[in-house]
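Incident log, support desk, overnight shift.

02:14 A customer reports that sequence design results differ from what the structure should imply. Their input is reproduced verbatim below. On-call engineer (initials T.W.) acknowledged and began investigating.
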């Protein structure tokens, strides 16, 4: 159960977050990869005219490989760009993403801090730094990062750091502040369904069961294909002693993702309440 929880948290944090741009790419063979790399390099070289453009092209190439999960090529190009332009905040930002994806959180923090030292207004770097602190369970440091974002009037999407702040407070078991920040998030972005789910989880922890059911029913209505939404709704139904509805929610959890981390747990819940007719 602990491992399953970690997987769910990990998946979510990088729902985020939000923001770190993942794309999947699979090559058929080593030869195909070499051809693709050469093609990509040739396109970049044709557009390079100055030393500054050359450095930027190497960084952009590294970022492209990073998006495609070609980590060796990404690292090679980004380190080359860093060597040529050690004061380019975008290079350090990309390296921060690289280290985060490789789960080297301390190096990711170091790169994001370098980014912010070079450009204190680099909002995405501050957001990502907060996400790394969440991954390290350093809740107060995460909160401090997000605080500088949602209080910045020119930040375009304040609901994201507000939501992440709510997550940090939830993990600190400060449910009053967690509830407050999830509600603030939804006041800005009313259909942000992941915030609805976490508000529902908070209501479950504080035993506001009718509120939990209401917000979680809304989340599954808006996003009917997310297993964990049904699982949390099932938990709320159990606390309300609505066992038939709970069974249905747990069964839907399994149906949507029969091999996922929640399936085994949900199946046990179905078995537990299958003999109770309510």
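02:41 Re-run completed on a clean worker. Output:
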């Amino acid at each position: 159960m602990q491992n399953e929880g970690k997987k769910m948290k990990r998946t979510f944090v990088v729902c985020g977050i939000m923001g770190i741009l993942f794309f999947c790419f699979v090559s058929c063979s080593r030869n195909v990869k070499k051809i693709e790399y050469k093609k990509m390099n040739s396109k970049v070289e044709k557009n390079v005219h100055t030393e500054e453009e050359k450095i930027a092209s190497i960084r952009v190439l590294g970022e492209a490989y990073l998006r495609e999960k070609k980590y060796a090529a990404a690292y090679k190009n980004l380190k080359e760009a860093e060597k040529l332009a050690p004061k380019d905040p975008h290079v350090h930002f990309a390296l921060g993403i690289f280290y985060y994806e490789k789960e080297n959180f301390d190096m990711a923090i170091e790169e994001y801090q370098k980014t912010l030292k070079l450009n204190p207004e680099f909002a995405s770097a501050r957001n990502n730094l907060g996400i790394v602190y969440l991954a390290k369970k350093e809740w107060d440091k995460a909160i401090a990062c997000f605080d500088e974002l949602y209080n910045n009037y020119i930040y375009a999407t304040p609901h994201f750091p507000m939501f992440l702040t709510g997550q940090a407070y939830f993990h600190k078991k400060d449910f009053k502040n967690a509830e407050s920040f999830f509600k603030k998030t939804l006041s800005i972005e009313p259909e942000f369904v992941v915030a609805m789910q976490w508000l529902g989880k908070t209501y479950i922890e504080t035993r506001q069961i009718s509120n939990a059911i209401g917000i979680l029913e809304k989340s599954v209505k808006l996003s009917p294909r997310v297993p964990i939404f049904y699982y949390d709704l099932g938990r709320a139904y159990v606390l309300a002693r609505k066992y038939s509805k709970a069974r249905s929610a747990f069964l839907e959890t399994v149906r949507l993702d029969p091999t996922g981390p929640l399936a085994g747990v949900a199946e046990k819940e179905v078995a537990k309440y299958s003999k109770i007719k309510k």
